Amino acid sequence: MHTLKKLNNYNIMFGLRTLKSIFIIFCDSFLVLYFFELSDSNILPIAMYKLVSIFTVYIVMFLVRNICKTKYRIHLIRLGIIVNFIYFLSMLILREHVIDYIYMVGFLYGLQVGLYQSTYNNLESNMVSNKQRAKFLGSYYASKSIISIIFPLIFGNLIYEEGFAKALIVVLIIVFFQIILSCLIKDKNVPKKSKTNLIEYMKIVKENRIIKNVYKKSFFNGLTYEGAFKYIVTIYIIRVFSTSVSLGIFTSIFALITCVLGILFAKLINPQYYGNLIKITMIFTIVSLCIMIYNCTMTTIILFNLFQTISLELVNLINESSDLNISNISVVKKNYKVEYWLGNETALFLGRVLSSILFIFMSFTSSNFIIYIFVIFVLLFANSSTQLQEEIKDEM
Fold first, then answer.
1. Tens-level pLDDT at each residue, the chain (396 residues)
2. CATH fold for the domain made of 2-185+200-395
3. How far apart are CA 380 and CA 213, in angstroms?
4. How far apart are CA 355 and CA 226, in angstroms?
5. Which residues contact 267 (CB under 8 A, 6 or more apart)?
6. Does residue 17 contact residue 147 with C-beta atoms inside 8 Å?
7. Numbers of helices and strands, H then E, in the chain
8. Buried b (16+ CB within 10 A) or exposed e, 115-124
9. Stretch (H or E) spanning 9
10. pTM
11. Is residue 264 a contact partner of residue 313, using CB atoms and an 8 Å limit?
12. Which of 60, 235, 277, 291 has an alpha carbon within 20 to 30 A of 108's alpha carbon?
């Protein structure tokens, strides 16, 4: 009976992650495209939307940190899904007037992410063991890639042929199923202490090199792929691919690579090679990024996205697996998991804020100058990710 319960929780978390990935794909490409078109190619509204959402995410996660250590924490995920419904409903109602309410929309997005993520990572690290981690993440990324093939084509066609409202209706139906699935979660391993102790946790961080490297890596991740950099890349793509349909096809083709990488990660890739994989793939990504900035054409964009797809998916798989596994080390697992994830979010938050400020500057100055700064940040992110894997290998 215990094994069946564990299997059910494993599958539920997998389902929740997979459904959530639909919204991530949607927000990362088509919402940026929509905002970009409505604002007459002005990136400032997108930047303000991002900045408001970043602050909201962190403030919400900080305020609910003590709830995350109680049996009521599961309600935060459900509440986050409901707010997600409200977020997309507001997009459906506002339509072309969404730019006039960009701060409210950014707040709603940040609120749903903050509520959902405040508890999700904690639950996943409990319900998926470290031994199952590679299989879980590899299978999830393979499934996400299939979704990336199907839904961009659906959304792209709906936006181009029927309008943005039709695409949002599909999203709202998915939210409904997400709420149902969240009600099936059977929470376990609720912390004995009902309040966070950030002061004591900071003492642990100071003495643990691996945790410090996790936060260093997360800071540079916030500066780049978890920050405004992914929006900048999307804008470069939009400038070449003129319609939502072509953007959907483009995204779907590269998703096939993700599927293969997910399967390889789950089945074949040995953890001792993680560091070298990051180094090699990120070198190709950084070189192709510089070429794309120098001469932005369809060829250079395709070249960059080929290498970025390979490197980013591998880095995400490796870093995510490491972050979750480290949350289960003895000094963190029993009493400080909430503090661990809040610390990780703090590092991401600081990186995201700086990233968004630079993104705002792009609307007032040379975009190439700012983008080259991001190239340096990508390099630092690759270096910090490699250092983390070396620290983990030394401890093994």
1. 444 344 478 888 888 898 888 777 766 555 666 666 666 666 777 778 888 999 999 999 999 999 998 888 889 999 998 898 888 778 777 767 777 888 898 899 999 999 999 999 988 988 888 888 988 998 888 888 887 777 766 666 666 666 666 666 777 788 888 888 888 887 777 777 778 889 999 999 999 999 999 999 999 999 998 888 877 777 777 666 655 555 556 666 777 777 777 777 777 778 788 888 888 888 888 998 888 888 877 788 878 888 888 888 888 889 999 999 999 898 888 889 999 999 999 999 999 999 988 888 877 776 678 888 889 999 999 999 999 998 887 665
2. Growth Hormone; Chain: A; (1.20.1250)
3. 12
4. 9
5. 138
6. no
7. 16, 0
8. bbbbbbbbbb
9. helix 2-26
10. 0.85
11. no
12. 235
Q: Which two tokens stand for residue 384?
A: 């910090």
List the chain domain ranges: 2-185+200-395
Both tokens of 214, joined, read 């996790």
